[in-house]
Amino acid sequence: MRRRRALSLAGLALSSALAGCLSTLTRDESEGDAEGEGERGRPDGSNATRGDDRPEGIYIQSFQESMSMQGESTAGDYRVALAFTVPHDFWTVTGREVELVPRTDADSLHLMAVVWDPESERVLPESGVSVQLTREGGVVTEEVLYPMLSQPMGFHYGANVVLPDDGTYDARVRVGGLSIRRTGSFRDRFGASASARLSLAFTDETREAVATRPIEQGGDPGALAPMDTGYPQSLAPPVSDLPGDLAGETERGDWAVAATVLPDPPTGIEGTGAYLAVSPRTRYNGFLLPAMGLSGTLTREGEPVFEGALDRTFDPTLGYHYGAVVPDAAAVDDLRVTATTPPQTARHEGYETAFFDLPEVETTLASR
Fold first, then answer.
1. Tens digits of per-residue pLDDT, 233-262?
2. Which of 36, 143, 166, 246 has CB 3.0 to 4.6 Å from 261, enough for a Cys bridge?
3. d(CA 319, CA 251)
4. Lowest model confidence (mean pLDDT) among 9-23, 173-187, 196-210, 311-325
């Protein structure tokens, strides 16, 4: 059996172990445990909604799950981990258009890959990733993995996959080079594609590690807490960990924003002046929000000091962020950040209606 899926999104370019079921919910002011025993199989969708009655914004997904870790390997500049769980409904995003990709009875598993820099352990959120599965020298399937956001995993690459039967498959994971701006020691890295080779074991034993259970609170405002996977996650750094003499942070609606100002731009960025770096993240869990369009305005005593687009940038110190050279910045400046394009990533349940009509956020820069 051989199948290929194509992906087009606007604006883009472990040793075997079980990650246990999550038992934590993240809410506005409380945390609670999801009750119920884990069961093998796929989410039954009893609390999930596919139509117009889906909650607006971030909501607790209707099920918890565990996954089977399939190992990790090095590919050029990249480190790659592979895992699978039960097949999922998910939603693709192109511009502002959202399309449901429903799981089918033919789907065997939901295959997931995470890619990161092994030196800094920063996750790479804007690379093209595909996987080819072979067995006994023959190609079984080739899949393009969608860039995705989920509540337990944050950013990863994934797709539902059909396998002909049980067995161990050779997996060749191809990682494409980054097309976004890279700075500092990342300037000469992550530009070329590379391939990692791993094994995918789809057997009774590995499926036994995969379980789901419904969540009574599914549909309520909030999110499942991040899963302990054993490899780096796309958690945005707290503002206290960002370099710079001026900083600010704020939260509104489905997102939070941390900002910092460096006295000089990172190496690789032309221009003179200070450098404004903005790091947007999901509410509740603090995962990076990649592949957005952002603009910023710095105002001092009612007069604009800077107005313009913030460019997607990957830096070893600042991480993945949106930045611009600004002529000047002071501790009295007010920063307003506007989302002009929602994140161009697929979404798992709980995120599919979020991040589309994000409110403007404002913060005042403070010395530290």
1. 999 999 999 999 899 999 999 999 999 999
2. 246
3. 20
4. 9-23
pLDDT tens profile 327-365: 888 888 999 999 999 999 999 999 999 999 999 999 999
User: How many domains is the chain partitioned into structurally?
Assistant: 2
Instruction: State which H helix or E strand residue 208 sits in.
Output: helix 204-208
Domain boundary among 177, 201, 224: 224
The residue with tokens 């990692």 is 196
The verdict on 89 and 184 lying in the same domain is yes
Alpha-carbon distance of 30 to 222, in angstroms, equals: 10
* Residue 186: φ, ψ to 5°: -85, -5
Domain limits at 284? Answer: 239-367
Tokens of 113: 């890959």
- Helix (H) or strand (E) holding 72, with range, is strand 67-75
What's the pLDDT band for 1 if we cut at 50, 70, 90? very low
